[in-house]
Design a protein that fits this description.
By secondary structure, the protein is mainly α. The protein contains five helices and two strands; from the N terminus they run ααββααα. α1 runs antiparallel to α2 and α2 crosses α5. Bound molecules: heme C. Heme C binds next to α2, α3 and α5.
């Protein structure tokens, strides 16, 4: 199965789970879809991410409890809006940092943020 087909089927399966955890209130992002998107974009090659078995990277910080962390990249205060901005383009937020721009769309960055905010 191609990566795209895998991602699409993951999204479809994700849509079936009505008991999924919710992201932050008043924030338009789908946490279940975000989980599938993290696999799709390969964030796990650099980050350890709870609940995502293949995400065991150790290039960047582990995203344990990232939903309750005070600062992102030790630089911007952690809010859903700031996290989505970071995921969409970390080089715009903090030029020269080690996380590359991954080509994440604005809606996808909101879905991923919704999932990461379930990690309390
Ligand atoms: C090539 C490695 C790499 C990839 C791929 C990568 N990141 Fe990162 N990420 C980093 C590094 C390095 C940092 C730390 C940057 C800093 O502190 O200046 C970071 C920081 C972060 C942070 C802030 C964490 C904190 O506590 O400060 C979040 C959230 C994050 N990444 C999410 C993601 C997501 C979501 C993806 C996939 C779309 C992703 N990253 C892909 C390397 C990567």
């Amino acid at each position: 199965m191609s990566l795209t087909a895998f991602a699409v089927s993951s999204l479809i399966l994700a849509g079936c789970d009505t008991k999924s955890e919710q992201g932050p209130p008043n924030f338009a992002g789908d946490a279940k879809r975000g989980m599938a998107l993290i696999k799709h974009y390969g964030c796990g090659s650099c980050h350890l991410i709870p609940q995502i078995a293949e995400a065991k990277g150790n290039v960047g910080p582990p995203l344990l409890h990232v939903g309750t962390r005070t600062y992102l990249a030790g630089f911007i205060s952690n809010s859903p809006e700031n996290m989505a901005r970071w995921i969409e383009n970390p080089q715009k937020v903090l030029p020269g940092n080690a996380m590359p721009r991954m080509g994440v769309t604005p809606q996808h960055s909101r879905d991923i943020t919704a999932f990461l905010y379930t990690l309390k």
